[in-house]
Amino acid sequence: MRTVMLASALFFLAGGAALADRPVTDAERARLVEAVAAEGCSGGKMEFDTSSSQGAKFEVDDAICADGKKYDLDFDQAFKLLKKKLEN
Question: Which domain holds residue 54?
Fold first, then answer.
């Protein structure tokens, strides 16, 4: 019985984590491309993260910026930059 309960708990936790991020919509993508470009960057993997402790936000991973380096960018729901972190 304990094993079944543990397996059920792990299933629900894994499912909840999978629902934390979602792909961006076409309209959101267009706005994000503009916001990323305004930071002197382009490209990257875009998603909407609802599990952040700071509230829901847009994430752009591995954007290439004007200095030729990769950055992770976070934007709020108004597409204003929250964080720009250099990737190692």
Answer: 21-86
